[in-house]
Amino acid sequence: METNSLAMSPVDGGTGRKPTTVCIFGTGDFGRSLGLRLLQAGYAVVFGSRRPHNSSLLPRGAQALSHAEAARTSEVIFLAVHRENYDFLGTLSEELVGKVLVDVSNNPRLNQYPESNAEYLGKLVPGASVVKAFNTVSAWALQSGGLDANRQVLICGDDSESKEVVVDIAHSLGLTALDKGSLRAAGEIEDFPLQLFPLWRLPLAIGAGLLAAVFTYVVVLDVIFTRVTTGKDNSFRIMISLANKVFPIISLTMLALCYLPGVMAAFLQLYNGTKYKRFPDWLDRWMLCRKQLGLLALAFAFLHVLYTLVIPFRYFVRYKVVTWTISEMKANQSKFDNTVAWYTDSYISLGILGFAFYVLLGITSLPSVSNAVNWREFRFVQSKLGHLTLLLCTVHTILYGWNRFLRASAYRWYLPPAYMLSLVVPCVVLVLKLVLITPCVDRVVMRIRQGWERKPPPDVAPSKSNPSQQPLIL
Amino acid sequence: METNSLAMSPVDGGTGRKPTTVCIFGTGDFGRSLGLRLLQAGYAVVFGSRRPHNSSLLPRGAQALSHAEAARTSEVIFLAVHRENYDFLGTLSEELVGKVLVDVSNNPRLNQYPESNAEYLGKLVPGASVVKAFNTVSAWALQSGGLDANRQVLICGDDSESKEVVVDIAHSLGLTALDKGSLRAAGEIEDFPLQLFPLWRLPLAIGAGLLAAVFTYVVVLDVIFTRVTTGKDNSFRIMISLANKVFPIISLTMLALCYLPGVMAAFLQLYNGTKYKRFPDWLDRWMLCRKQLGLLALAFAFLHVLYTLVIPFRYFVRYKVVTWTISEMKANQSKFDNTVAWYTDSYISLGILGFAFYVLLGITSLPSVSNAVNWREFRFVQSKLGHLTLLLCTVHTILYGWNRFLRASAYRWYLPPAYMLSLVVPCVVLVLKLVLITPCVDRVVMRIRQGWERKPPPDVAPSKSNPSQQPLIL
Amino acid sequence: METNSLAMSPVDGGTGRKPTTVCIFGTGDFGRSLGLRLLQAGYAVVFGSRRPHNSSLLPRGAQALSHAEAARTSEVIFLAVHRENYDFLGTLSEELVGKVLVDVSNNPRLNQYPESNAEYLGKLVPGASVVKAFNTVSAWALQSGGLDANRQVLICGDDSESKEVVVDIAHSLGLTALDKGSLRAAGEIEDFPLQLFPLWRLPLAIGAGLLAAVFTYVVVLDVIFTRVTTGKDNSFRIMISLANKVFPIISLTMLALCYLPGVMAAFLQLYNGTKYKRFPDWLDRWMLCRKQLGLLALAFAFLHVLYTLVIPFRYFVRYKVVTWTISEMKANQSKFDNTVAWYTDSYISLGILGFAFYVLLGITSLPSVSNAVNWREFRFVQSKLGHLTLLLCTVHTILYGWNRFLRASAYRWYLPPAYMLSLVVPCVVLVLKLVLITPCVDRVVMRIRQGWERKPPPDVAPSKSNPSQQPLIL
User: Fold this and answer.
1) How does pLDDT run across B266-282, given as a tens digit for each residue?
2) CATH number, domain containing residue C137
3) Which of C66, C236, C321 sits opposite B338 (nearest CB)?
């Protein structure tokens, strides 16, 4: 919507309510977007600017004054300037005494300065009450109204009343506020928008590690083996043939790694006999990034599908088909083998079905879809359909191998073919899961999850301040 | 964000506001997540626990006392324990008199007990005011803040003031509350998170039915016919060839079933001459699950595309190509047939375009996308582009058949080829839609939708309490 | 959830709060949905209807009276009828004096009437205070609770207190309100839900223009050239072969057009030496629709992928392969060319990787995903991964051409092959971006973005009302 054609005036609610004035220092992108939103929410907005007479970019309805004058008009001042420009505030110490000074700044890099911007500001202007807020909301989100996870404003500060004032402003703009404590938490809040996909670090590391390891394995067993044993140069196979061995192996392994912590946690609870004992830290961390593991596995599966579908129009494959055709003709064409037709069509079909369910899992991981289903539906898809996907993809890989593992020629340098490596983790997960869903084991797990404990806790020693006793059975 | 490194303290707003204390019985997943959220929103939180001295898992800043002591500190008590453990509350009847007791429980299965948990609780503790709430919000949603459709708390209870208190707490946590009436509605609220995709039941049933029917049809006409007439064993074709006949038939039929109720409703309104007459229940139910019908149809179309793209590297297909190549060579290669090139390329091209629009329809059905467009844009995509997709896919199927329906050999056992079955419903829908968009018919439909009625309603009989008369023309 | 089985009663909060009564004129879809929502939020609802005794469709718990009686019960009246039916309000002028009359209407077409519905209503009922609101919220959104971007109610009106009342109602329903000024803004608010993808106009126009231009180019250079020079009829190639030349050219060009304004803006800032000078309007407009340009480019890339994957089972291609096989056999099969294998596998592989990143870009453009990441993560994906995608697809196209540009036969009628046209814009963008990321240039751009200016602004002339002077360095 074109903002310059709409009149902007604060909703003043008649005789009763006086509009609150908010002052903003700084006329950059963020300052202007914040000012516009505040005007639309009914506040009067005053900008403190270096050049109050050159205010062509400011939203209509807002005033522009010098910094000192602007500071006097309001109780709350948003400081929408970069940290490098904080110095001038030193000259305004008097006007800023007793004001709520909101630090909305971000730094381009983590740990760029020894102390957080908000604490630095607090030292610069000791008379003001500094509150760190709004640094997680971007100017673009303020303009476009696209506030969902960006709807949350993290707040911290030493004075509770000042924080209250800022929380009220946040609520008027349709944002929610989360209190993080005193100003010492400012460093953490300033780091928050600089995080770059923190939950993806471990899955990406695992993926990169697997990529390097499996790629080396297949190159050795394919290109180097062929060069050493026959002298032929097979290296062109790296681009597609070997890539199409590596990607499915990584995908299946990571999908299994996505479901392995769940079964391990269940067995741990069975072993402990209770659900109240903490999991080891590494298991906790693993369980936190299961969704990212699964999505990365889906990405590799998607690449595998595309690399498979391009097989027929590769020059190499066409050359092989022509060679085969010519040899078939000279040999007067071998008989059609029904078994080969059955198992090849089967593993292709299972692969397609597995991928289709995989895509369904991915779609339900989208934030809007996973929030539109209740937790029973979510568990049904992610758990039941998830294990079904793992099963289909594992059987797909087993059928792809068929009886190759029985032939000695498949074992180059006494190492198994690469595809067999990918079957290890999935089979472990599927077998463990099979154990977990047998009725007797399942019953115990359900009871533990409802709060039952194999070894009841020791009695609570009665303290002097608590004359009543808890019955044993609680 | 690592929660254990952040200090948690209630925002107490200075001299004016006293923090409200909320008591939580139960230290499981939900109780701890709820306590943490309440602390972050500014409440003081007291846990009532069986083992108040073993409180290592509780969020920092929360207190842990015995149940009786905790109950005394607060007006509101959240009961975060399973129904099986409600008994101990009997011993606390005195402390619970006059308190608001919030039942947040869920059962693992529908209709597990004769009466709802909340009503059972009410009988157990008659002095307390029981409110059913928060059972639709999961512990994970509270922790991660991922609250969208899970943002809604369903509330019911006999006492309005108690409900008010719980509604306020919900609002402070950034949730919205929906009042469902008295405590008799608790059973329905408890059933809500146990539903498993209720709107998908009918479409999945239709899909399964079509799957069984069409699959049987193609197996009979392909594998069994071949076995009976020629003795050859064609059964390997089930995995891919026959699957790739079944899936497109189901997809096209379900896509047509997605648009059929719309045209039926329009004709019904034309027949009735008004939009104020209720549709039959079966039509209402059908119209409610149109989106799920369409998405299921898209899933089958996606499978059809994958099964088609794998054709060239199937053993069976390569064998056929080699056979064809050899026969072509011996026959000195037949001439290139331009017509065949034209219509095969055309039906493939139309299929691709139809699938692309199909995917676009699916993307706009995602919750976040359908909420980002206004209703005119939504109708444009779902209705105009939707019918265009149906048209493209129908022409794709017709061209695929080409002149096969003219040859007698296509009719095995006097039955039509399977693909012709899939054309019935789509052609009906497209013809009816064509009638509806002719200007004269369209004009009448628009007027009816704006409120015009062919037969005006009877006069309102003037009642004693209403001396004024409504003019006839209203 | 089945609404007819739930009791609906307003939450009256005990002795303190009296339920506000809201009156709704009109019992159509919107009126009934709004009434149901208001009941669930705790309001008492009275419908004003032409036929108060025939109220079978109304939500339970709502009253139905004549228009005049209903108007007397409440301060606020929602007018949920079409503009064509506004006339009857003339008879109710007395009862409507001093009421807040909320106009929620929409028209089927833009500019259907000379003045907005709200202003027309204002003339019809001069004693009432007309507020335009709720026309952007659909009945279906009210029913299903699916309110996200539809959560925003645009409000305008001449009287601030009346607007306050409506804003409060909106908040109770969980909606946010945006004040657009006086009633003169009603026309703009009424146009808002009639917009049909306004940000897509320019990208779709560019796409259509490119489609026409490139399609003509390839048809001339392929079909017409062949017909003129050899007399053969190649026209069947239009459906797939030529389509598969056109789509990738458009896709790559539009992807480059998506990133071109960014580099142009950076160079403009470098030239100006400041970030405070406004961009030209055409550049602003271009930058606003970058996301739509990118998504349209992705759609064409998706079509290109599908058209490529169907190559092997086209009749035309199978005929060519058979021809090639037969000639290979007669020529005793040419030697396997490793270089051809390398570069063809490479360009296919790069194309797949480029498309995979392309899809990732598309997924992160979904509203729910782009709102779940912070701005640093969003910039990383859209900018770094975006330019990587552009690079991969450009190298894919260059490798596809290989050494064709060196052969004279590739230049038909002295014009370059079509694929070379698609390389122009991408190479320009990539070269300019390369310049921008060299450390010396990048440093200057970063400083400009932080507020540094090459030519400091002129001194602020001291005014009589402002005795203090701004220091020069600010």
Assistant:
1) 999 999 888 777 889 99
2) 3.40.50.720
3) C236
Range of the domain at A239: 202-437
* Residues C175 and C206 placed together within one structural domain of the fold: no
A145, C152: Cβ pair inside 8 Å? Answer: yes
pLDDT in the model for residue C449: 78
Chains A and C form CB pairs within 8 A to the count of 181
Measured from the Cβ of residue B111, the count of other Cβ atoms closer than 10 Å reads: 10
Task: Report the range out of C45-59, C177-191, C376-390 with the highest average pLDDT.
Answer: C376-390
Residues A239 and A286 in one domain: yes
Model ipTM? Answer: 0.79
A23 domain residue, yes or no: yes
Q: What are the chain A neighbours of C468 within 8 Å (beta carbons)?
A: 66, 68
Distance CA B131, CA C415 (A): 79
If asked whether residues B171 and B310 sit together in one domain, one would say: no
**In this predicted model, what pLDDT tens digit does every residue of B385-423 receive, in sequence order?**
999 999 999 999 999 988 888 888 888 888 899 999 999
Whether residue C314 and residue B371 make contact (CB cut-off 8 A), yes or no, is no
pLDDT of A144 reads: 64
Q: What is the mean pLDDT of chain C?
A: 83
**C190, C240, C359, C370: best to mutate for the B interface, most B CBs within 10 A:** C240
Q: What is the DSSP letter of B158?
A: S
* Residue C318 shares a structural domain with residue C370: yes
**Same domain as C128, residue C212:** no
Name which of C179, C311, C461 is nearest A42 (Cβ-Cβ).
Answer: C179
pLDDT bin (cut points 50, 70, 90) of residue B3 is: very low
Q: A145 — contact with chain B (CB < 8 Å)?
A: no
Look over chain B and give the mean of its residue pLDDT values, rounded to a whole number: 83
Indicate whether C175 and C227 sit together in one domain: no
Hey, which residues 98-117 in chain B have their CB within 8 Å of chain C?
none
CB A188 to CB B13 under 8 A? Answer: no
Candidate from B179, B311, B471 with C-beta closest to C11: B179
Asked which of A37-41, A348-352, C133-137, C204-208 is least confident by mean pLDDT, the reply is A37-41
Query: Are residue C247 and residue C101 in the same domain, yes or no?
Result: no
Average pLDDT over residues C130-154: 72
Given C163, C194, C225, which residue is the final one in a domain?
A: C194
C461 domain-assigned: no
Asked whether residue C313 carries a pLDDT value surpassing 70, the answer given is yes
Q: Which of residues 251-310 of C touch A (CB under 8 A)?
A: 276, 278, 305, 308-309
Could you say which of B162, B194, B226 is where a domain stops? B194
Q: DSSP string of A375-439?
A: HHHHHIIIIIIHHHHHHHHHHHHHHHHTTGGGSGGG-BTTBPPHHHHTTHHHHHHHHHHHHHHSH
Same domain, C232 and C180: no
Within a domain: A67: yes
CATH of the domain at A381: 1.20.120
Q: pLDDT tens for residues C410-434?
A: 888 888 999 999 999 999 999 999 9
Q: Chain B partners of C68 at a C-beta cutoff of 8 Å?
A: 468
Q: What is the pTM of this model?
A: 0.82
- Domain assignment present for residue B168? The answer is yes
Residues of chain C neighbouring B164 (CB-CB closer than 8 A):
11, 13-14
Please give the tally of structural domains in chain B: 2
C314 at interface of B, judged by CB pairs closer than 8 A: yes
Confidence of residue A333 (pLDDT cuts 50, 70, 90): confident
* pLDDT exceeds 60 at position C8: no
